[in-house]
């Protein structure tokens, strides 16, 4: 295939929807939460072993989550991990207006 034959499609903003994942919105939310878990660990300079103790998980479980294997992990569990890592999580739900976002989660 030459460069002229390539088809470039604009994404929807949710890579999981674009790839045909089941329940892509939840998967995107979990990915965002896991990213924040990794950032919180880095900010606190925690190893996976130390972070696992703080979050109430095991190092192998935390490693799997950080590598993107979080399908079986609930949103609630990820939120609990964040609060145990010292993050403040605000969940804001409001009626849909002119924005396409139905709910917003802020990390502070």
Automatic annotation (TrEMBL):
Would you say which domain of life the source belongs to? Bacteria
Keyword Nucleus assigned? no
For this UniProt record, the keywords arranged alphabetically read as follows:
Plasmid
- Which residues are in the HTH cro/C1-type domain? 37-92
Matching entries from InterPro entries are given as: Cro/C1-type_HTH (IPR001387), HigA2-like_HTH (IPR039554), Lambda_DNA-bd_dom_sf (IPR010982)
Q: Please give the Gene Ontology molecular function terms for this protein.
A: DNA binding
The name this protein goes by in its record: XRE family transcriptional regulator
């Amino acid at each position: 295939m030459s460069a002229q034959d390539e088809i470039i499609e604009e994404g929807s903003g949710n890579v999981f929807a674009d790839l045909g994942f089941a329940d892509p919105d939840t998967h995107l939310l979990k990915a965002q939460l896991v990213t924040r878990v990794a950032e919180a660990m880095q900010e606190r300079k925690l190893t996976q072993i130390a972070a696992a103790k703080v979050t109430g998980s095991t190092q192998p479980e935390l490693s799997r989550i950080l590598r993107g294997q979080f399908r079986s992990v609930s949103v609630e569990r990820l939120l609990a991990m964040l609060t145990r890592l010292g993050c403040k999580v605000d969940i804001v739900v409001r009626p849909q207006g002119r924005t396409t976002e139905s709910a917003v989660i802020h990390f502070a």
